[in-house]
Amino acid sequence: MPDGGHAGQLQIKGLVKEYRAGTPVLRGIDLNIEGTGLTAIIGPSGTGKSTIIRCINRLVDPTAGEIWLDVAGERIDMARQRGAGLRRSRRHIGMVFQEYNLVERLTVMENLLTGRLGFVSAWAAWRRKFPPQDFERAYALLKTVGLEAFANQRADALSGGQRQRVGIARALMQQPSLLLADEPTSSLDPKTSVEIMQLLRDQGLQHGIPVVVNMHDVELARRYADRIVGMTGGKVVFDGPPAELSDAVLQQIYGGTGWMA
Amino acid sequence: MSTTLKPAVQREPFVWSTSAKLIALGVLVYSVWVLAQIDISAERLGVGLKQGAKFIARMFPPDLSKMDILWSGISESLQIAVLATVLGITLSLPLGLLAARNMMPAGVSALGRGVIAVARSLHPVISAILFVKAVGFGPLAGILALTVGSVGFIGKLFADAIEEISPKQVEAVRATGASFMNVVLFGVLPQVLARFVGFCTYQLDSNLRNSTMVGIVGAGGIGGALFSAFQRFDYDFVFTILATIIAIIVAGELLVNAVRKALDV
């Protein structure tokens, strides 16, 4: 089943984040994510959806709280990690970004290999001396996302949807225990958005790891999430399967009714 | 919505602001006043043109008898230019990284920027005078002087280029758990390498010119022969030297353009 990724439990306890002292964006988040499946975090802009995701792999540092994650067989509090320990833990968390964040001037193949940089020394990486399994895995992942023909194209020659698929492949190159996605479809057209959500969901199941996605398209979330977490005002106000996401709950999350179908 | 908003200030587009007009006027007045101070008169211009014509006449026919002096001077200048550029590039790469405020803590980047600022503030000829005093006459002083100048130029532009990179690409590489060196190699350098090569080729061009000058103060190269020919009133030899210098610079520029095209920068 999983080729190295190990589905561990993600446990967030009392997560607080203040970008400016006195005005917390996250006001104490408690969240448990177990097993596989796609969890979608929805909510209005500025409510901290992106902040939660980025606290998990510490692209943002929490002000308070704990983030427990099973990493390589150990249970680690990501909020306490520093330096080399933090880098070692990050290797096991893959991330997909809203604007793809590929290194534009490198080829698709080189971008995929950057996913292995946590495991390879700078000297070896500069000479492109990655272990042969890395190259094999890269070609296999390119095939999975349907971009084999683009292996040696520069990343900036690709369309948005193609770039996001490379981004997903790059994250999977890490053989992560957890796959995070920060608004992965917000820059894509509706058809491509559906393809990307499908890919995220399928790859999560195939590798046996949980996928946590932050998104603002409620319908897309309903279609592809196994579980929806609704946030507003920095707190979780809904946590359950898409079937239970009623109009009343949506109104509580987003406020106002004019935008609903 | 039935109300319309009125603009706070009625303003036509493309009109100069008051302060812009005042500054332009100030510059104009200053220029006119300064011109009046300088001792320029039609008579002086006339005398100058006549002397200039006499001077150019004495350059012809060019003196072709001292080719060995010419050749040894030019080849020394070329060596100075190439060595100084290579050394300058090697030093600028780490120094530019250290001086980039988005890569390093404030103390380190301030120090890096300081070193670059000092290296830039000295004109190559002044640097050459200092190095001649320090290490004696000859090409070593010239190489050191032009290396300092190269580090100042490439280092500053390189640091500026690094500060302009997209943080998103860097963020993605960091998120994989890559070490700092790996983040630099794969997240930072790919974004700036093309521009860095551009700066280096420009500096090679510049060093070719500068290397002809440092000889004037004894730091090696053709400058020494040029200056002594001038002092001896050997204007025909001066012409030969100048013509050769121009030919070399133009050839150098064509070569650099070809290299840039080949490397696609």
Total strands of chain B: the figure is 0
Our count of domains of chain B comes out at: 1
| Gross CATH architecture of chain B | Orthogonal Bundle
The strand order across the widest sheet of chain A is 6-7-8-3-9-10
* H-E order of chain A: EEEHEEHEHHHHEHEHEEH
Topology:
The complex is a heterodimer of chains A (261) and B (265).
Chain A lengths: L9 E11 L2 E11 L3 E6 L6 H8 L7 E8 L2 E4 L5 H8 L2 E4 L11 H7 L7 H5 L5 H13 L15 H14 L4 E5 L7 H18 L2 E5 L3 H7 L2 E6 L2 E6 L6 H8 L7
Parallel strand pairs in A: 3-8, 3-9, 6-7, 7-8
Antiparallel strand pairs in A: 1-2, 1-4, 4-5, 9-10
Helix pairs in contact in A: 3-6, 5-6, 6-7
Chain B lengths: L17 H20 L4 H16 L9 H33 L6 H16 L2 H12 L3 H25 L3 H8 L5 H35 L7 H10 L3 H29 L2
Helix pairs in contact in B: 3-4, 3-6, 3-8, 3-9, 4-6, 5-6, 6-8, 7-8, 8-10, 9-10
Q: Can you characterise this structure?
A:
- The complex is a heterodimer of chains A (261) and B (265).
- Chain A is an alpha/beta fold and 261 residues long.
- Chain A has nine helices and ten strands.
- In chain A, a hairpin with a 2-residue loop joins strand 1 and strand 2.
- In chain A, helix 3 runs parallel beside helix 6 and helix 5 packs antiparallel against helix 6.
- Chain A is globular, with a radius of gyration of 18 Å.
- Chain B is an all-alpha fold and 265 residues long.
- Helices cover 77% and strands 0% of the residues of chain B.
- Chain B is built from ten helices and no strands.
- In chain B, helix 9 packs antiparallel against helix 10.
- Chain B is extended.
- At the A-B interface, helix 2, strand 6 and helix 4 of A face helix 7 and helix 8 of B.
Key words describing this protein structure:
heterodimer, A: 261 residues, alpha/beta, Rossmann fold, six-stranded mixed β-sheet, four-stranded antiparallel β-sheet, B: 265 residues, mainly alpha, MetI-like fold, 10 helices, 77% helix, 0% strand, extended
